[in-house]
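Q: I'm writing up a methods section and want to include an example of the input and output format. Could you take the sequence below and give the corresponding predicted structure tokens, formatted cleanly so I can copy it straight into the document?
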Amino acid sequence: MPSSISVQCIFQRLRFLGIFGLSITFALSPAFSEMNIVQGPAPAIVGDAPTDVPPLAKDLSPEFKRRDVKKALRKVADWQLDRARPNFNKDWTYAALYAGFMAVPASVAGSRYQDAMLEMGKSFSWQLGPRIAHADDQAIGQTYIQLYLEHHDPAMLAPTRHGFDTVMGLPDDPSKPLWWWCDALFMAPPVLAELSKATGDRHYLTFLDREWSITSDKLYDPVQHLFYRDASFLDKHEQNGKNIFWSRGNGWVMAGLVRVMDSMPKNDPLRPKYVRQFQQMAATVAPLQSHDGLWRPGLLDPDAYPLPENSGSAFITYALAYGVRENLIDRKRYLPVVHKAWAGLLSHIYEDGRLGCIQPIGAAPGDFTATSSYVYGVGAFLLAGSEIYKLSD
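A: Here is the clean output for your methods example:
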């Protein structure tokens, strides 16, 4: 096992033991950047992994019936909203959760979650995070623009537009890709696609496409049709000798693809490129689904990981469900995969609404426990459930 992965596993084990009660910045390698992002007194701000939890829920059904999907969505979303609201912030972890809240249909919970998002946006004066060119600090813009498209308040849009206009004016540095890690393809590109939709300015799509191509050329394996997390993983391998393709990293990309496609005009000449990459990735990840309907942290070495990983699994489920609903992938082939995945996700919901088996912040496959729950994974679940609700009877 590569040394950077081993160090990460040690970090996660210590975190579960409660040793890290202070804010710690890791700068061991680029692969640890995800751990740099969240600054706070304790990991519990983003999530936790307690030993004392209620039993698993027994009142949820995996049937694709709207009443059943609604019940699961409400159970998880209400639990997470109550816990997360005091800690709302502008980083990527919460941006993924906000995207999930925004996706929940009004017929599921009325305006409860969107009202919370309005409150959040106002509290931050619709500002992005502090690092103007860093995708992780731009991801919250997805929620701001979606609220703008509904309420048409220019104040909701202006800071995000100004931030991206500034980034687009910066000189290129070929040695330093703007989006050098695959997670970034969920964080920034959907904001650019939404900006183009909100403003009618196609320059945002042109910039998106150029930067996506740079990242894809560096990190997308054209044979295996999966993304490496970043360039440091190009020559790293699982215990079985296969390449390390992180399920959450590839889930980030697939979710980013569908969110870009959803905001991009269907007749845009750039769109077929994204459809093709999405179809390639879907064809790769579907056969990697485990017997329980979910995906392990390392996609190509499932036997090395005893637990499924629900943030990656939920992002993949979201993307596949969207693909089926939009007729981008074959319904007969992929709908059973989505059914099985949804049943698997529901099997990790506790009586109180906690969604477990979510890997903590990291940059590669790592250790976690069955009770481990983090806000970005819940956001992925809400995205998946909202798509499945639309597919339901």
